[in-house]
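Can't paste images in this forum, so I'm doing it all in text. The chain is below; anyone willing to post the predicted structure tokens underneath?
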Amino acid sequence: MPVDVRQERRVALALRWLTDYARQRADKTMAEKFASELIDAFRSTGNAVKKREDTHKMAEANKAFAHYRW
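Text version of the structure:
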């Protein structure tokens, strides 16, 4: 069910998604991988951005169940 996420968790999730998708890239070093993922995120084309959009779509779809919060 969709709930607001605290600021600390937002940052933690963003960094986790960036590093996870950077590791999956085919560049040579981790620095290059992370830089490429950051550039793609800035352009709104990276995998981390897609993950964020998918998460937001899922929360929007489940908005009807928000009143069942424990």
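The mean pLDDT is 85. The helical segments are 7-23, 30-42, 47-61.
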